[in-house]
Amino acid sequence: MRISQWKILGISLFIISFTGAQYQPNWESIDSRPLPVWYDEAKIGIFIHWGLFSVPSFGDEWFWYYWKHNKDTAYVNFMKQNYRPDFTYPDFGPLFTAEFFNPDQWADLFQSSGARYIVLTSKHHEGFTNWPSKVSWNWNSMDVGPHRDLVGELAASIRNRTSIRFGLYHSLFEWFNPEYLADKQNNFTTQTFVKGKTMPELYDLVNTYKPEVIWSDGCNGPDTYWTSREFLAWLYNESPVKDTVVTNDRWCTGCTCQHGGYYTCHDRYNPGKLLSHKWENCMTIDRKSWGYRREATLADYLTMDNLTNLIAETVSCGGNILINVGPTHDGRIVPIFEERLRQMGDWLKVNGEAIYGSKPWSHQNDTITPGVWYTSQKSSAGVNVYAIVLDWPESKLTLGSPTTSTMTNVTLLGYSGAIQWKPDGIQGLTIYVPAIPVSEMPCLWAWVFKLENLKS
Predict the structure, then answer these.
(1) Residue 111 — φ and ψ, nearest 5°?
(2) What percent of the chain has pLDDT over 90?
(3) Contact 341, 311 (CB under 8 A)
(4) For residue 228, with 0-12 CB atoms within 10 Å meaning exposed, 13-18 middle and 19 or more buried, which class applies?
(5) For 154-197, how does the pLDDT look when each residue is reduced to its tens digit (9 = 90+)?
(6) DSSP label at 65?
């Protein structure tokens, strides 16, 4: 009996739909998944490192490892001078109190920062979970310390009060978990830790909180050990966030900058050039730590000049920037972090047109004047180019990269006055910068000139 090609196609589509087998558990298939559009358009995210390391709040979030594994003198002495001799790291658990944690306040702050997504630490390498994990008995924020579901509370506030996408960081490994150490001792030929801890946690996080970013870390071990490919295939095919979720590249030894979703490569990755693959610069406002540090000085924190410089350079080269803050053990985001985030929001209110949804231009930075980074946006007339100028020009600004036309128009974002300019031969232009009173300056850091109707 002859079957029409339309019936065959219908049967095939039914089978694909029924099995959900769009992406296979191999890197060729997983890496072929297009990145959801929202992520590239978002550009700006907030990273939140919060856990038991926030209690000693000394050194950085690797406190336990440096203290007990490396026996670093600074950490050993800190404990000797401030805690009883038999104090252990789990004793920090009841001290992780979060009594001032107000998820609505956090959500409002993140919204005011201009960020389009956040990534909260669900579990760092210490193994303590910020949600009531069923496979982390007595080592989670519901059983110990706050007695609250920190992940769930922030997820609810973000979704109820903002337009921000909610994401989660999760460490695959745990420094001192005996099951992980046993698997490692067996050269990762056994999977007791993965089957009993890591993978149950990841499936639980996705099904319960539906994060649209999964920021994996702590990937010491092969993908065959972590079963990363199987998890990602499920995530992309069947999970409740399969159509919108994005992931990074930290899924196994050798995966970074090779496999997964967007590339992070290493902490504070900033190549300074255009890459062919989407990437993210995850970085810290505190130059020395991801977690909160009580010993930090003002000089340790990035200024807004530093921050706008990093935003401009990262976005110009096609990256997203994930900006980290470290809350305190009692749930506060301290004023220096709050100030930076609100200042960034003020800057983005004026200059967001050059950032959100932008694309890299043919030139990333200017060929003549240093400290000028370019982005672009499609318009009805073609392409608008944005020159992000890190230092305010005294009276004129020379740009060597653009080629003007008779229709070219130059404006300064946030300023209503006219901007005069002249072409410099075949390529380049000089912008005559007006003497703008301080009270009329559109912003205090990194000014953006919009160039319309360029030839190239």
Answers:
(1) -65, -40
(2) 94
(3) no
(4) buried
(5) 999 999 999 999 999 999 999 999 999 999 999 999 999 999 99
(6) I
> Quick one: which of 397, 396, 418 has its CA closest to 387?
397
Per 3-state DSSP, what percentage of the chain is helix, strand, and coil (rounded to 5)?
35, 20, 50
- Cα 133 from Cα 189, distance rounded (Å): 26
The candidate with the shortest Cα–Cα distance to 247, out of 265, 230, 235, is 235
**Residue 7: Cβ within 10 Å count:** 10
Its pTM stands at 0.94
Q: Give the tens place of pLDDT for each residue, 403-423.
A: 999 999 999 999 999 999 999
Identify the three-state secondary structure at position 420.
Answer: strand
Maximum distance among all Cα pairs of the chain, rounded to whole angstroms? 87
Q: What is the DSSP letter of 34?
A: P
Contact assessment for residue 207 and residue 240, using Cβ atoms and an 8 Å cutoff: yes
3-class SS at 97?
coil
DSSP state of 396: E
CA 25 to chain CA centroid, Å, is 25
| Residue written as token pair 């080629």 | 403
Residue count (the chain): 456
Residue bearing tokens 């005294």: 394
The enclosing H or E element of 103 equals: helix 103-112
Structural tokens at position 101: 């944690």
How wide is the angle at C-alpha 431 spanned by C-alphas 440 and 386, nearest 5°? Answer: 80
